[in-house]
Design a protein that fits this description.
Elements lengths: L1 H11 L3 H7 L21 E3 L22 E2 L6 E20 L8 E6 L6 H4 L6 E4 L7 E4 L8 E8 L9 E13 L3 H23 L1 H6 L1
Antiparallel strand pairs: 1-3, 2-8, 3-6, 3-7, 3-8, 4-5, 4-7
Length: about 210
């Protein structure tokens, strides 16, 4: 849709890097967009009026305001995002608001797949960002070295900027994905067990029996 292309480029004119980053990618978005590698069926939102997956959208839907996530009982919100592999995170993309429904800030926790509101006060976030009131998609660059081997990312929004509820339209993630290699771990254990068995057999036949006799 030409209208969306136009909007996308206008929204990024002010940031040269972003514009270059998107250039020529059309509605597919940046080639390091992690959307295809998010386990969307298992995205969980706590204290939310809808399922968390509604805000994990493809790049071409980032400005769509028809579906959004809103906090329920108060203005706190937790979003847990699991990946289908291991991720080296580079940036968080957020579209929030409007106005006072914009979160004050977002706190990022890595590899805390079952984190809830009881846990957030006990654990220090890996990184956190203040969120300005802006209806455009904003990019928050993380300290990549601290998000190097991420299997799940938890976003905690502790408060709105004055409204009774917090609202989020879009959550996107940029970075590098690699397949989670589970098989080699199993193989290593099997190999260790087998080696122990062999040592025992060799010991009985060799040195072990001579020391006993």
């Amino acid at each position: 849709m030409p209208h969306n292309h136009h909007d996308g480029h206008c929204g990024h004119e002010s940031n040269e890097n972003d514009h270059d980053h998107d250039h020529g990618t059309s509605d597919l978005g940046p080639n390091d967009n992690l959307f295809p590698h998010i386990d969307r069926a298992n995205v969980v939102a706590l204290n939310a009026t809808r399922e968390g997956s509604v805000v994990v959208k493809p790049w071409d839907q980032r400005n769509n305001e028809e579906s959004f996530l809103e906090s329920d009982a108060d203005d706190q919100l937790i979003l847990r995002i699991p990946f289908t592999g291991s991720v080296r995170l580079r940036s968080l993309l957020l579209k929030t608001g409007p106005g006072d429904q914009t979160p004050m800030k977002v706190a990022l926790f890595s590899n805390q797949p079952s984190m809830d509101f009881n846990d957030v006060s006990d654990k220090a976030p890996v990184q956190e960002f203040d969120i300005p009131q802006d209806r455009n998609v904003a990019e928050y660059s993380v300290k990549t070295a601290k998000f190097n081997n991420v299997s799940s990312l938890t976003l905690f929004f502790p408060a709105s900027q004055g409204a009774e509820t917090t609202r989020i339209y879009y959550v996107g993630l940029l970075g590098h994905w690699t397949e989670r290699k589970t098989d080699p771990v199993i193989t290593v254990y099997e190999t260790q067990a087998n080696l122990a068995d062999h040592e025992k057999i060799q010991g009985t036949d060799g040195n072990f029996s001579t020391t006993q006799s």
